[in-house]
Design a protein that fits this description.
By secondary structure, this protein is an alpha/beta fold. It is built from nine helices and eleven strands. The strands form two sheets. Strands 1, 2, 5, 6, 7, 8, 9, 10 and 11 form a nine-stranded mixed beta sheet that branches. The longest helix is centred in the middle third of the chain and has 17 residues. The chain is globular, with a radius of gyration of 18 Å.
Length: 282
Amino acid sequence: MHTVIIRDDDTNALTPIPCLEMLYRPFLERGLPVNLATVPEVRCDARSPEGVREGFLPRQGNPAVETVALGENQALVDYLHANRGYSIVQHGCYHDTFEFDRTDRAEIVRRLERGTRRLQEAGFKDVQAFVAPHDKISGVAYEEIAARFRVISTGWFEWRRLPMAWRPRYIVRKLSGAPHWRADDTLLLSHPGCLLSYMRPYDTMMDAIKQAIDRQELTVLVTHWWEYFRNGQTDTNFVNVLHQVAEYLAARRDVRVTTFDALAREKGVAREVPTMVERAVA
């Protein structure tokens, strides 16, 4: 049996409901849950590492507003609660550039706790998973995140960024070639890159996704909702590929689609981590 987790990044208080509805109704109708990595209090002038205004923000910002908490958009909050197929993941706090690639422990804790509080204010009180903006996490941040969340989802793991106590487990993970591992009670999940991205060729996207799923027991498929609506235009070809993914996953009897939260709660969660690694870190 193969397990797939669908992770969509950057939902925030400024996200248009019709965008999520267009993209994910085919998943919800088929009982395929979608993990929304949600920014708890989005910065209205968030910038990419290249200094460009983030694509998940409206094209025209309001310079008088610095941040907007998720709970301030009651219509979006109601929509997310009404559609139980969505599972909320904490995506940083403000989505500042490299927000958790810092060594100031007090500031890391402040951002983690503020982000959690903002999600709780919107009614999401038991979030189990965390995604850092831009996949950059310092050793101190790893420690504080792991103390609060049971799952960390990221693109990759770097030796120099890991806490010293985690490094022996990381060596075992590297030697085994395992994509996922554990640090104490926290699952550390990597993903095979953003296979669902407008920067990849659409005609080979499905084949790449199928190959990724078949290669391992657990695959995290990452995409970004705003990439389907670039420059105020809907990329219908890209949307069609996403909907093909829903059809494909629903048709495969040897694939289950789940959430980070459900994975964290399973008694047999060790099964999702390769046996060799599990023995070494137990």
